[in-house]
């Protein structure tokens, strides 16, 4: 009983102190944040990578900010509805938009009307490595793929998910950098793409390395090129784009956005709380479990914005030239 | 394999796991019976609950929910014409007329039996043939999917009623399906700049609107007063009926398994194709839509078989065969498991426990279905003035929950009015649904086919499976058109 009372006393004292502090620093809006439960808008359907990401962060952020979080999935229009709703929410940092690279790819393709002038990136927390994946019986290594594609212009078919997806952008960027003449077929689901690669109906696909591990062991599918600066520690045999002289390193990234009018102090408070979440053992364990630990995922607000702006320019150009 | 399966059964029969399985079946029953709450949503809602469970129990739980929702969608489809899940739409076409003829018990009995038979055939195929069937799935690519969709669509010509209405209906369905971003190029079609339409018109708002809402409107406006059903007795093993539907049952179960294992098309499509085939093979196709027992047996056997079939590529290759299995795939990854071609070897203990669990689930459905359904049939005695609003409320909540979208609710109500008007014109709703579900498959797969062959149509005939399917559909189409013409000519000759 005594314990409880002293706790209450201590915390009310703390509150009074905080109140005073915020009164002296009038602009210090973040001291009170969050004033109510948070809302996570997930720009993807339930059960996918972005949804799992949001649901993993939820309890961690709840603890860090001492509040409650509700998650709403808004998969419609490749997540554009989630961005729209975030952009029109009250700019107090209580509505967080969890999105993947599809945000910027669909923006460049004109399918998402909400740009970086209406949303502020808070942090990037995941960076999955893009790879070129083939059936190793058809192409045992990247050299043989390259040779075949050069000798048979227009014959090689690459599959991917919809027309404004990160894997389509990887395809366009790859074709742009290599000058190879290849075709792209979009499918509705990633599963259909891999089925067609395994069935030998198409030549390959671009996909994240995390989703191909199961196939590498059995040899049904194999990544033969990684989009990275350096070879991955876990896969030293797979060549990189950069060592071939192509500056392609974008993968599928996942991060958090808020309304662009949110006060900078609140943005940085969310950013630092997310950083604490990112550095926690529990979060790192999750990254390892779902194979997202091959390269650094964290990027702060400013750096992430710069990255997204660069991506936007590149994708816009690639789509226009296509 | 037998040994692994028996080990699996031993795991399943642990008291805790039995409890998990039976609660999963009951949860699935309730979710499946509520219009709009489909297996996908239920699995998503309950996914976080499984994070604290051990993986074997977690996946027995999720797959059992999945299996039982596919079953229980038929209850409300038959009793109120409000399909509880998209998989059960076809069941409403003949199930509801039987209820109106006072044969609700018979219809439900056929539904239960067909579901269990389909589910068992599917589960046995899953257990015995998983590695083999998976390679069949890989033989199917765009040309084969296109041919399959065409085979399904040609049945419009064989459906009873006026052919021209069937064609208009199918075209209407095809038109609704074109709304949204073009699946290949991403160009917006008929979206009018509205983001809510970008992803297209969802299947659930259309189905719930066209069937459930329009029926509530019709019943509310009809002059006839409420006539309470005195007693509905569900008879599951009814020998004369069973003899009649035996052929349909076996054909539909096999068809369901085969369609189920194809990645990307699920139990709803299987129900549709198998209903089409039941109509086509029937000696009395004109009875369909008016309460034919085969019209319940075909979709129910097929959708339950297909639901199990959809697990084949998931376990054997890590490729989901349908929407719900895609979420189960995500759950595997969250549990730190690695689905893929090695999954059967690395996690065989878990997989065979899940198989054994699914096997048992079919018997649990058989056991629990009757008491559960009796609860629902009691609701038939509530005056429709009270029941109607409850149905509408369930439809609104269910439709909203699919995408958290109020827009979908308005869309659903709009389709309710449309369905009401179309039925006043004696318009066959079945052809709209056929167009809506099979249209997008046909369209995008044809375009993918042509991308594969660089514009050469002959690819459809050089691949053996697609060639066979297309030739069958062409032949069936010719027969369906010629037979009535000859009948008419003969009638004319007889008259003169």
Quick rundown:
The complex is a heterodimer of chains A (322) and B (496). Chain A is α/β, with parallel strands linked by helices.
Description:
The complex is a heterodimer of chains A (322) and B (496). Chain A is 43% helix and 18% strand. Chain A is α/β, with parallel strands linked by helices and 322 residues long. Chain A has 2 domains: 38-127 and 252-321, Bordetella uptake gene, domain 1 (D-Maltodextrin-Binding Protein, domain 2, 3-Layer(aba) Sandwich), CATH 3.40.190; 130-244, D-Maltodextrin-Binding Protein, domain 2. Chain A has a 5-stranded mixed beta sheet with strand order 2-1-3-10-4, with helices on both faces. Chain A has a 5-stranded mixed beta sheet with strand order 7-6-8-5-9, sandwiched between helices. The longest helix of chain A has 23 residues, at 2-24. The N and C termini of chain A lie far apart (71 Å). Chain B is 75% helix and 1% strand. Chain B has a two-stranded antiparallel ribbon. Chain B is globular. At the A-B interface, helix 2, helix 3, strand 7, helix 7 and helix 8 of A face helix 3, helix 6, helix 14 and helix 19 of B.
Strand order of the largest sheet of chain B: 1-2
Structural class of chain A: alpha/beta
Mean pLDDT of chain B: 87
Q: Low-confidence parts of chain A lasting 5 or more residues at pLDDT below 50?
A: 13-27
CATH architecture of the largest domain in chain A: 3-Layer(aba) Sandwich
Given the C-alpha coordinates, what overall shape of chain A results?
globular
What structural class should be given to the helix and strand makeup of chain B?
mainly alpha
Tally of separate domains of chain B = 1
Number of alpha- plus pi-helical segments of chain A: 11
Tally of structural domains of chain A: 2
- Give the helices and strands of chain A as they follow along the chain: HEHEHEHEEHEHEHEHEEHHH
* Annotation, overall tally of beta strands of chain A: 10
Instruction: Give the termini separation of chain A.
Output: 71 Å
Could you say what the CATH topology of the largest domain in chain A is called? D-Maltodextrin-Binding Protein, domain 2
> Helical proportion of chain A?
40-55%
């Amino acid at each position: 009983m005594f314990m409880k009372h002293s706790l209450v006393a201590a915390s009310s004292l703390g509150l009074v102190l905080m109140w005073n502090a915020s009164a002296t620093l009038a602009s210090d809006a973040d001291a009170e944040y969050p004033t109510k439960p948070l809302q996570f808008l997930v720009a993807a359907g339930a059960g996918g990578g972005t949804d799992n990401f949001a649901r993993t962060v939820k309890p961690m952020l709840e603890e860090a900010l001492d509040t409650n979080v509700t998650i709403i999935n808004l998969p419609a229009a490749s997540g554009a509805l989630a961005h729209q709703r975030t952009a029109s929410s009250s700019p107090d940092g209580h509505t967080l938009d969890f999105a993947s690279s599809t945000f910027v790819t669909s923006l460049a393709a004109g399918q998402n009307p909400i740009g970086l002038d209406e949303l502020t990136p808070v942090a990037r927390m995941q960076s999955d490595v893009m790879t070129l994946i083939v059936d190793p019986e058809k192409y045992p290594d990247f050299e043989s793929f390259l040779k075949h594609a050069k000798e048979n212009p227009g014959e090689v078919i690459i599959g991917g998910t919809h027309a404004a997806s990160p894997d389509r952008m990887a395809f366009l960027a790859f074709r742009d950098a290599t000058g190879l003449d290849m075709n792209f077929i979009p499918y509705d689901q990633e599963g259909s793409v891999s089925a067609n690669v395994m069935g030998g109906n198409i030549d390959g696909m671009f996909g994240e390395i995390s989703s191909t591990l199961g196939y590498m062991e059995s040899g049904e599918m194999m990544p033969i090129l990684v989009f990275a600066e350096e070879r991955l520690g876990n896969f030293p045999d797979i060549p990189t784009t950069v060592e071939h002289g192509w500056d392609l390193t974008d993968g599928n990234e996942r991060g958090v956005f808020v309304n662009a009018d949110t006060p900078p102090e609140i943005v940085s408070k969310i950013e630092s709380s997310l950083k604490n979440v990112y550095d926690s053992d529990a979060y790192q364990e999750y990254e390892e479990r779902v194979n997202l630990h091959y390269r650094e995922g964290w990027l702060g607000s400013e750096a992430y914005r710069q990255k997204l702006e660069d991506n936007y320019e590149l994708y816009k150009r690639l789509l226009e030239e296509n | 394999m037998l040994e692994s399966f028996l080990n699996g059964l031993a795991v399943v029969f642990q008291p805790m796991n039995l409890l998990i399985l039976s609660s999963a079946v009951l949860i699935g029953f309730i979710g499946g019976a509520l219009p709009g709450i489909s297996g996908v949503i239920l699995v998503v809602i309950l996914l976080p609950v499984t994070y604290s469970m051990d993986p074997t129990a977690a996946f027995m739980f999720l797959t059992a929910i999945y299996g039982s929702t596919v079953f229980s969608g038929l209850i409300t489809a038959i009793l109120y014409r409000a399909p509880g899940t998209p998989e059960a739409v076809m069941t409403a076409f003949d199930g509801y007329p039987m209820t109106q003829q006072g044969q609700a018990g018979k219809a439900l009995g056929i539904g239960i039996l067909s579901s269990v038979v389909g589910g068992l055939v599917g589960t046995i195929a899953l257990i015995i043939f998983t590695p083999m069937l998976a390679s069949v799935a890989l033989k199917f690519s765009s040309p084969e999917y296109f041919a399959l969709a065409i085979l399904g669509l040609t049945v419009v010509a064989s459906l009873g009623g006026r052919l021209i209405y069937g064609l208009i209906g199918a075209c209407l369905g095809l038109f609704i399906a074109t709304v949204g971003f073009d699946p290949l190029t991403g160009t917006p079609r008929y979206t009018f700049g509205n983001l809510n339409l970008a992803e297209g018109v969802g299947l659930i708002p259309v189905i719930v609107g066209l069937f459930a809402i329009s029926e509530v409107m019709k019943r509310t406006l009809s002059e006839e007063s409420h006539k309470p059903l005195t007693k509905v007795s569900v008879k599951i093993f009814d020998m004369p009926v069973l003899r009649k539907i035996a052929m349909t049952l076996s054909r539909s179960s096999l068809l369901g398994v085969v369609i189920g294992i194809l990645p990307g098309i699920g139990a709803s499509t299987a129900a549709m194709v198998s209903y089409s085939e039941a109509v086509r093979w029937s000696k009395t196709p004109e009875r369909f839509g008016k309460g034919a027992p085969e019209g319940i047996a075909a979709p129910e056997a097929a959708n339950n078989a297909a639901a199990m079939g959809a697990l084949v590529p998931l376990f054997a290759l890590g490729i989901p065969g349908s929407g719900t299995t895609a979420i189960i795939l995500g759950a595997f990854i969250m549990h730190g498991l690695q689905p893929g071609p090695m999954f059967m070897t690395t996690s065989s203990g878990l997989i065979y426990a899940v198989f054994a669990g699914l096997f048992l689930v079919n018997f649990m459905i058989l056991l629990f279905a009757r008491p559960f359904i009796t609860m629902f049939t009691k609701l038939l005695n509530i005056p429709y003035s009270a029941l109607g609003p409850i149905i509408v409320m369930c439809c609104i909540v269910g439709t909203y929950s699919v995408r958290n979208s109020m827009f979908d609710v308005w869309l659903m109500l709009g389709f309710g009015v449309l369905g009401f008007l179309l039925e006043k014109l004696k318009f066959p709703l079945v052809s709209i649904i056929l167009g809506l579900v099979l249209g997008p498959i046909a369209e995008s797969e044809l375009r993918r086919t042509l991308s594969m062959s660089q514009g050469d149509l002959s690819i459809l005939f050089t691949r053996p499976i697609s060639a066979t399917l297309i030739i069958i559909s062409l032949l069936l189409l010719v027969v369906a058109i010629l037979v009535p013409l000859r009948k008419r000519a003969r009638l004319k000759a007889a008259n003169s």
